[in-house]
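W.,

You were right to be curious about this one. When I first looked at the sequence I had no strong expectations either way, so I just let the prediction run and decided to look at it fresh. Below is the sequence, 245 residues in total, followed by the output.
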Amino acid sequence: MKKAVCFFVLFMLNLASAQQINITPSIDVNQVENMISLKAFVLNNDEVIHDLNYLLIAIKKTESNNLSNNKQEGQFVIAASEKKNLSELRLNISKGDEIKSYLFIRDEINNKLIAKDSILIKYKEKDSEEEISSKTEAVFLKEDFVIKGLVIDQTKTKFGRDFFDNFYSAYNLMNEKYPFVITITEVPSLGRTSIIQIEDRDKLLHSFRVEPKEEYIKMQVDYTLKLLNQYNNELNFISEQLSAP
């Protein structure tokens, strides 16, 4: 009887973990004069509580092509059918500016990407016939835009940050930046060690156990760059095949 109960409990736990989490993220935008407010919300469409984490990031490009980014991240628990306000970013916008923002929602247990939202904000100047006080406004476009060269740091220890810093420095020196978001995540492992994962969205490209050795970190950086180049070539090949007549 006890074996049957244990089997039933394990079956229900496996079933629950296999169920897809139904979460709807959204980025709400408000403008007051030349100030843009980006508010991150998430709606739990399920009837169970979820333990999740979020990353809200905004990249601003000026008319002279200067780039700056702001981000906020954290863990949260959301109740059944709850809509939760996660975070807010405030940015100035002026003539020629363009702001691209992503909101990523991940499962806190296995760090798997569940859902995302994105928005593109462009500066727009109104006709000169209108009042001077209302000559500028932002245009908000919901679209799945491409950001080249974006690397997201989700490491947690000094050794994880050492790898990220070395990787980002090497990646920045490359002429070609890849048209996908590279996420570097550090997850706990057995003992005092951790594992570094390199992902594109929810696709795991490479993982390795952290070791506090400079030569080992450099080797992993070189190997990761090689894998990313191969992955990008595969994506290009598939795209060419799909577009071929």
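Here's what jumped out at me. The chain has two domains: 23-145, 146-240. And, maybe more interesting for your project: The first helix runs from residue 2 to 18.

Coffee later to discuss?

I.
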